[in-house]
Request: fold
Amino acid sequence: MALVDPISEARAAKRTALDELAGKRLLANFGISVPKSVIVQDADAAAAACGNLKPPLVLKVVSPDILHKSDAGGVKVGLENAADVGEAVRAMMGRPAIENARIDGFLLEEMAPAGVELVVGGLRDPQFGPLVMVGLGGVFVEMLADVAFRICPITRLDAEEMLDELKGAALLRGARGRTAVSREAIVDALLKVGGERGLLMTHAEDIAEADINPLIVSEQGAVAVDARFVLTR
Ligand code: ADP
Ligand code: MG
Reply:
């Protein structure tokens, strides 16, 4: 069965960006781990959908008007059962920033194992083409400004060097009694995004900006729990 290309779908619908679900489908097409998820429209559907997912779950609003879901009260983590989920949808729908926005639905997904939050990004330079970026910090990435960039395509060695460049590289090695996270999983994800046959090279004409924030990395692996892609004009 041919994979449905989320970029062609978005183009056909005249959208200028991929929503979170489409973005995650694109990542999955390139072998990057994403949480198992479903999109639902209301509290009852959300509660009913719990049966096919393994708790704890996360609920997120999906809206073209809301870029930073947490700021709008549009992310609720740690939901343990159908009652929690139903209540979370109702509470979210009542938030002022959400009540007044166009809502495409709610994404209900499994939680990634706890770990270090990285950001993996991409952008298209008019001169050099796609660039790939990795940084530490997840939600704090702007504050920490600890990032490394390379021109695509990157090799395994480039990916390794990008990680060594980070000021907070020690965090990945398990500083202060924390367990080390899988460096291999980060390198692998960077190659799937920025490598020769990676996402950014493959879709160089279509992707203006890519933002995986965060990629949660633990001992077990790396999971992209948020994704946003802006398409070229
Ligand atoms: P936004 O960046 O739009 O505020 P995110 O989807 O990045 O929303 O979610 C905010 C935070 O919630 C993430 O940085 C992460 O800490 C946590 N989170 C979101 N989804 C998951 C998930 N599936 N598993 C674990 N943590 C999650
Ligand atoms: Mg995010």
Notes: The chain has a mean pLDDT of 94. The chain has ten helices and eleven strands.
